[in-house]
Design a protein that fits this description.
Layout (H helix, E strand, L loop, with lengths): L1 E6 L5 H12 L2 E3 L9 H6 L1 H25 L4 E4 L2 H14 L5 H15 L7 E6 L2 H11 L9 H17 L4 E5 L9 H16 L3
Parallel strand pairs: 1-3, 1-4, 2-3, 4-5
């Protein structure tokens, strides 16, 4: 089974992936941030590095999907390839931080990849307001994230809401403003109960 966690920067995807991996015995596949050669430069100069960063994420995410397909285990994935394309790259283009020809090249490559893959069995969307995102971003203290603009986070949130509204496959929405699963065991238990209910309806 393939479970994927979607959500904006700072919504808690990595934390939840680790908690679910521990609870269910699933294998977790995390977003590559520590070894990403473009991430720090991107937050210093988004226009200069947007295309490079998005191509890097796209290739890494596609490799993850190939590995998931080969695996005999249940995988919980931190962020999806759909977010890369429909939210992050599209937002950079709309904000004029990615040129038209770069975006077209990116979109053509994504459409080719998308024709070869299937959606996850379950998509868990972590919905969080911008203040919650900012608080959690500050809490984890990643240096390269210090320059993230509030309008960038808000635009991403708007795109996430459109994405999840139109996502036609199995999904579960968790409101991070109301459930602090990282610090509160009772909130984590509530999240797990919700996931159990959806998973039991899958098979």
């Amino acid at each position: 089974m393939h479970v994927a966690i979607a959500g904006n920067i700072g919504s808690g995807k990595t934390t939840l992936a680790g908690l679910l991996s521990k609870h269910y015995g699933w294998q977790a596949q995390y977003e590559d941030t520590e070894d990403n050669p473009y991430l720090y430069d991107f937050y210093q100069n988004m226009q200069r590095w947007s295309f490079h960063l998005q191509i890097y994420f796209l290739s890494r995410r596609f490799k993850q999907i190939v590995d998931i397909k080969k695996s005999a285990h249940t995988i919980v994935q931190d962020r999806t390839i759909f977010e890369d394309a429909y939210i992050f790259a599209a937002n950079l283009h709309d904000m004029q931080l990615m040129t038209d020809h770069d975006y077209k090249s990116y979109a053509d490559l994504f459409e080719l990849m998308n024709s070869l893959i299937a959606p996850p069995d379950l998509l868990i969307y972590l919905r969080a307001s911008v203040p919650t995102l900012v608080r959690q971003i500050q809490r984890r203290g990643r240096e390269y994230e210090e320059g993230i603009r509030l309008d960038y986070l808000k635009n991403l949130n708007d795109r996430y809401e459109d994405f999840i509204k139109n996502y036609a496959h199995k999904k579960l929405i968790i409101n991070v403003d109301e459930l602090n699963f990282s610090d509160n065991p009772e909130d984590l238990s509530e999240v797990i109960t919700k996931i159990d209910g959806v998973i039991n309806g899958l098979f």
